[in-house]
Amino acid sequence: SKSSLEKIKKQLSAGSGNSALQGPLFKRSETLRKWNQRWFTLDPATGKMEYRLDRGDLSSRGQIYFDADSTITLSPINFHGAKKYDGCCFYIGTPNKKEYYLCAESQAVARAWVATLRASSLVLKAHKEAVNSLSGNGAAKLGTVAAVVTAANTVAKEAAKDIASEMQTSIKATLSGKSSQTASGDGGMDNVSIMKETLRVKDEELHQLSRELRTRDVTIKELADRLSETADAAEAAARAAHAMDKERKAARAEADRALKELDDRTKVARLQLKAGEERYAAVMRERDEALVEAQRWQKELAKAREQMLLMEAARIR
Fold first, then answer.
1. Poorest-pLDDT segment among 99-113, 149-163, 195-209
2. Are the beta carbons of 46 and 168 closer than 8 angstroms?
3. Angle at CA 64, nearest 5°, toward 63 and 67?
4. Residue 41 three-state SS
5. Under 8 Å CB-to-CB from 119, ≥6 apart: which residues?
6. Any idea where the PH domain is (predicted)?
7. What's the Rg (C-alpha) of the chain?
8. Where are the domains of the chain?
9. Are 39 and 57 in contact (CB under 8 A)?
């Protein structure tokens, strides 16, 4: 129905109000090919990445829009050029032939961005499938929607596992390096202090990533819930359309019956009219024959009178 379709449009146009992921990224300038660090936020409900000069900047410096047909992938090539950014670059290609080259501070962060963008892309695709189901086989396409939501959640969970594993590996490597420096006896207390500070920083990074992952998971769950509502609305609209189609068929059958009855009555009326015309023609023929017969008798009567006059004249003579 129209109300169900409007409900779906509102759900698709409304933003979630939360960012699935945010943080600093290097963005390559489209004109000067220069790398600038910007603070990015992702809104998965609309497929928009917005960037500012820094986290506290209130004014947007630009947006990157992507959808279900966009290409989102980690790049095997270090576009940035600096050695420490190997495996940290990723690429976004949009259907309108816009290309964006981005670089994260670490491979784990790059993977988090790519995984979240892909999950958001899958959810956008699911929304599109839900709307398209209104104009086609609703039941079949709603199954596809559910599968896409499941795939999006799976991608998000796998990304969380990868990031946690990456951070644990990084911490272990740091611990191993600092322990070997402490064992050498050169500046032991300083090395221990450095190790503690490093662990503290890594722990803060891990907690920050965990918070961002939880925020992203909540956002994806909200999207999945909204998508379920969209699917329910689409199913209700499909049922309403089916009921309307049934009523239309019944009305069409009634109209066909009335047309057939009218056609039958028209045929009967035409037959009656034809019979009346034939009777009228027969009466007219009889009238014409009677007129001819009357004229003939009038002539005979005139001849008889003339004969009588002649006979009367002869008798008088």
1. 149-163
2. no
3. 135
4. strand
5. 20, 44, 152, 153, 155, 156, 159, 220
6. 18-122
7. 46
8. 2-8+18-249
9. yes
Give me 1's structure tokens.
């129905």
Take residue 188 and report the two structure tokens written for it. Answer: 């032991």
DSSP 8-state secondary structure symbol assigned to residue 14: S
Q: Would you tell me how many other CB atoms lie within 10 Å of the CB of residue 189? A: 8
For residues 215 and 20, is the Cβ–Cβ distance under 8 A?
yes
Any idea how long the chain is? 317
Contacts 24+ apart (CB under 8 A), 31-38: 35/80, 35/103
User: Is residue 103 scored above 90 in pLDDT?
Assistant: yes
Q: In sequence order, what DSSP letters do the residues of 201-262 get, joined into one string?
A: HHHHHHHHHHHHHHHHHHHHHHHHHHHHHHHHHHHHHHHHHHHHHHHHHHHHHHHHHHHHHH
Q: Which pair of structure tokens corresponds to residue 67?
A: 């959808």
pLDDT band at 212 (very low <50, low <70, confident <90, very high): confident
Residue whose entry in the numeric block shows the structure tokens 């689409």: 234
Give the number of C-alpha atoms closer than 13 A to the C-alpha of residue 315, restricted to the C-beta side: 6
Closest CA to 80 of 70, 91, 72: 91
| Range 177-188 average pLDDT | 49
Q: How far is CA 258 from the centre of its chain?
A: 41
pLDDT of residue 140: 42
Nearest to 44, CA basis, from 25, 19, 13, 81: 19
Class of 2-8+18-249 per CATH?
Answer: mainly beta
Confidence of residue 192 (pLDDT cuts 50, 70, 90): low
Single-letter amino acid code for the residue at 86: D
